[in-house]
């Protein structure tokens, strides 16, 4: 991949991640849903509770409500032609379910589809 091709794909991947971040800030899953492939997977522990499936993610986002002060940082983006891995660190989660001051580490796998880059997998760690 050429440098300009890499930067173009990087920007498109970041746009998909911004949909996820914006939905998280607004507490509205409908904002982030377009970034996810319909068959995406989702796994992680929130405390002792194992969360599985994007349905649980979307329900959690909606029930948690707005978290406008989260501090997201894209730590890395690794692109291999039609697949990519993104590491996202988010500090200061708040809301109805999160409480306050929560930190999350997320790993996303994305796939380049005819409709653009789509999240096909999210795994997370909830820091206590």
Can you give a write-up of this model?
This protein has 128 residues and is α+β, with helices and mostly antiparallel strands. Helices cover 30% and strands 51% of the residues. The chain is built from three helices and six strands; from the N terminus they run ααββαββββ. It has helices spanning 3-26, 29-32, 54-64; strands at residues 36-46, 49-52, 71-80, 83-95, 99-113, 116-127. β1 and β2 form a beta hairpin. The chain is globular and about 45 Å long. The termini are far apart. The mean pLDDT is 95.
Secondary structure elements and pairings:
Elements (H helix, E strand, L loop, with lengths): L2 H24 L2 H4 L3 E11 L2 E4 L1 H11 L6 E10 L2 E13 L3 E15 L2 E12 L1
Parallel strand pairs: 1-6
Antiparallel strand pairs: 1-2, 3-4, 4-5, 5-6
Key traits:
3 helices, 6 strands, alpha+beta, 6-stranded mixed beta sheet, 128 residues, 30% helix
């Amino acid at each position: 991949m050429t440098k300009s091709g890499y930067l173009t794909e990087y920007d498109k991947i970041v746009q998909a991640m911004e949909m996820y971040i914006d939905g998280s800030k607004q507490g509205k899953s409908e904002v982030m849903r377009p970034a996810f492939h319909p068959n995406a997977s989702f796994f992680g522990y929130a405390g002792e509770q194992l969360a599985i499936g994007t349905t649980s993610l979307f329900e959690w986002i909606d029930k948690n409500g707005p978290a406008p002060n989260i501090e997201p940082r894209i730590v890395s983006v690794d692109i291999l032609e039609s697949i990519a891995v993104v590491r996202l660190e988010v500090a200061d989660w708040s809301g109805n379910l999160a409480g306050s001051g929560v930190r999350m580490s997320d790993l996303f796998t994305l796939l380049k589809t005819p409709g653009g880059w789509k999240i096909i997998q999210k795994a997370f760690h909830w820091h206590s």
